[in-house]
Design goal:
27 strands, 653 residues, alpha/beta, single chain, five-stranded antiparallel beta sheet
């Protein structure tokens, strides 16, 4: 569920750390927030419906150095203080004499059965949440068995069916925090004499970069003065790896921009460069000649550079193993695949659709793109020896995509992961993978992650196709053009932002709009429509341009803007015909086309010109004007672009 957890045990004032952590988790989507802090034998609780700043107004003076915090996105029960977290076993949800408090991300699927059983035992419930059922279950175990908090949590969780990331603090032992995970991300941050628990590392990045990622079925118990112990929920002790986080505090702040979304749109030249850094090289040192080479055969430092564009992807050069036996590299496995299945959700699914076109053209391999949420519920025929499954997720924690990954693994399929977050669950559970290296993406509406995902898919397809299904000349040409994309994105932004603002001003009151494209740019039309509806709340639909005649054309009138991607590629003439069909019905046409193409000027209200590029690479450029236009229209309509209503960044249950 799109909620946020943060917790702290140390020497500092817990309220400051919890509230700043919750503020950094706001992008995840929420409707209420709360904290519980242990102090002087009491458990002080504050909750508020609305924004974290409203909670801060009543909680920032709370004393104590141990506490938990939460932002809730309603699932069971409406947004209210009664349903907000933290929850306690007491009748009054803010009772300071409660023995412990709990915050929870996820869904307890068998909460009705548990609630009925606990009700028969005399427990009363005061909220509509499934979380309160877990709280009462832990309390029941403590009361009936005499177990301490840690063991009571273990035993209670053994009865739970569903997904959870939980953290518990206790009035009776303020020097202890207990946290556990099953299906909902949770991690431990390790500082100097202080510890943090959070659903996202951004909550504590300003204090430490030392992190332990909890796996499903694991628990951590933190004790002041003694440190932490990770174990399975069944009680088997573990010695997990401590990982050094990448990134800086500045990377998760706005950096002078009005909104994270605008910052992330503008960062795309840099994020694309970072995505290619160390992977795409245009030159190689010339081999030493007998005259200029040294005796050890190495090229001197001033050796001439050869024009030798190439791609290196370490994540697919690694060797695959099965039952301890070395098999082959991931690249070799990819090249002999008879079918590729790509799974993703939302924007990642759209990136996968672009990948379908790229892999089929360059690698000559059949590709199917599946909604991850549907993949495991269909009778998909999987052939482990022939199929490769790719899963795409910005966060690496998307619940449906994780479920698709595990479903494919259960059939014995090799799974490749593409994600942005180092150390995420998808990164850990796939057989191999490629990181986006796009930097943190905070805005709910994905921008730079989409272009980085398409970039990774393009690099992967080119590496698979090299010396295999395309000739060297085409390979080198595409690598050169790909290396130039960051500067072209920069040019698109510089040359078109003012015109896009003008277009936004004209169409900001539209109630409906269409986005149309063909070939590689059909998925970009879907992505453009998604951006528009996500942040401006204008009803928008994306279609293959030719499909307009099969229904959507009935909607077109002089009040409906229709956005065409009309690059001068192999199907440009057909898209031009589709534009004429809209014009014949008095539709308002806005087109994106190549620089130097003036023949659409008389046919369209507005034309956005972008650099000409090979059609395989065009989606990375054509999406940029759509991102900017959606942003400016949303701002003009007074929408909260970073936290659009009902949405969240990471859908983790």
């Amino acid at each position: 569920i799109m909620c946020g957890i943060t917790a702290y045990l140390g020497a500092k004032k817990a309220a400051d750390i919890l509230l700043s952590g919750l503020a950094r988790l706001e992008y995840r989507g929420y409707d209420s927030a709360g904290v519980a802090i242990c102090s002087e034998g009491k458990l002080n609780i504050r909750k508020k419906v609305g924004k974290v700043k409203e909670l801060a107004a009543v909680a920032n003076q709370m004393p104590g150095s141990t506490g938990i915090g939460h932002t809730r996105w309603a699932t069971h029960g409406e947004p209210s203080e009664r349903n907000a977290h933290p929850h306690v076993p007491s009748a009054a949800q803010s009772a300071s004499d409660a023995s412990f408090a709990l915050v929870h991300n996820g869904i307890i699927e068998n909460f009705k059965t548990l609630k009925e059983s606990l009700t028969l035992k005399g427990h009363k419930f005061y909220s509509d949440t499934d979380t309160e059922v877990l709280v009462k279950l832990i309390e029941d175990v403590k009361t009936t068995t005499g177990l301490g908090l840690e063991e009571a949590v273990r035993q209670a969780l053994s009865h739970v069916v569903g997904a959870y990331g939980i953290c518990v603090c206790s009035r009776e032992d303020p020097d202890v925090l207990v946290a556990a995970r099953l299906g909902s991300p949770l991690m431990l941050g390790i500082g100097e004499g202080e510890w943090f628990v959070a659903s996202d590392a951004s909550a504590f990045l300003e204090y430490t970069r030392q992190v332990v990622y909890l796996n499903d079925g694991e628990m951590v118990v933190i004790r002041r003065g003694a440190g932490y112990q990770v174990s399975t929920i069944k009680g088997n002790k573990l010695d997990p790896e401590v990982i050094e986080l990448e990134g800086t505090l500045e990377s998760i702040e706005k950096g002078g921009y009005s909104h994270f979304m605008l910052k992330e749109i503008m960062e795309q030249p840099t994020s694309l460069e970072n995505c290619m850094r160390g992977r795409v090289k245009l030159h190689a040192s010339a081999p030493p000649s007998p005259v200029q080479g040294s005796r050890d055969g190495k090229a001197p430092d001033d050796a001439p550079q050869q024009d030798s564009p190439h791609i290196t992807l370490g994540g697919i050069e690694q060797v695959l193993y099965k039952d301890g036996q070395e098999l082959e590299t991931m690249l070799s496995r990819l090249q002999r695949a008879r079918r590729i299945i790509i799974c993703g959700c939302g924007t990642s699914w759209h990136a996968g659709l672009v990948g379908e076109y790229i892999f089929e053209q360059l690698c000559k391999v059949p590709v199917e793109v599946e909604y991850a949420s549907e993949f495991r519920y269909r009778a998909v025929v999987l052939r482990p020896e022939e199929d490769i499954v790719m899963v795409i997720s910005q966060s690496g924690e998307t619940a449906d995509t994780l479920a698709a990954l595990r479903h494919a693994k259960s059939f014995g399929c090799t799974v490749l992961g593409i994600c942005n977050t180092v150390g995420s669950t998808i990164a850990r559970e796939t057989d191999g993978g490629i990181y986006l290296h796009a930097g943190p993406e905070i805005g709910v509406a994905s921008t730079k992650a989409f272009t980085a995902q398409v970039m990774v898919l393009t690099m992967l397809a080119l590496r698979m196709a090299q010396n295999h299904t395309i000739d060297d000349k085409e390979y080198r040409d595409l690598v050169r053009q790909m290396a130039a994309l960051p500067r072209q994105v920069e040019r698109i932004i510089q040359n078109n932002e003012e015109k896009l603002k003008e277009i936004g001003k004209v169409y900001r009151y539209a109630q409906h709009c269409l986005f149309l494209g063909r070939g590689y740019n059909y998925p970009v039309a879907l992505e453009g429509a998604l951006k528009m509806k996500e942040i401006s709340y204008i009803h928008a639909e994306g279609y293959p341009a030719a499909e307009m005649k099969h229904g959507p054309i009935a909607l077109i009138d002089n009040l409906m803007p229709v956005f065409f991607i009309a690059m001068q590629d192999s199907i440009y003439e057909k898209v031009k015909s589709n534009i004429q069909e809209v014009r014949a019905r008095k539709g308002c046409v806005i087109a994106i086309t190549d620089e130097g193409n003036d023949e659409l000027d008389e046919m369209c209200e507005y034309v956005i010109h972008i650099p000409k590029v090979h059609e395989v690479l065009s989606p990375i450029l054509t999406v940029i004007p759509m991102q900017l236009l959606s942003y400016h229209i949303a701002i003009m309509r007074g929408c909260d672009v970073d936290m659009p209503r009902n949405l969240a960044k990471s859908v983790t249950t």
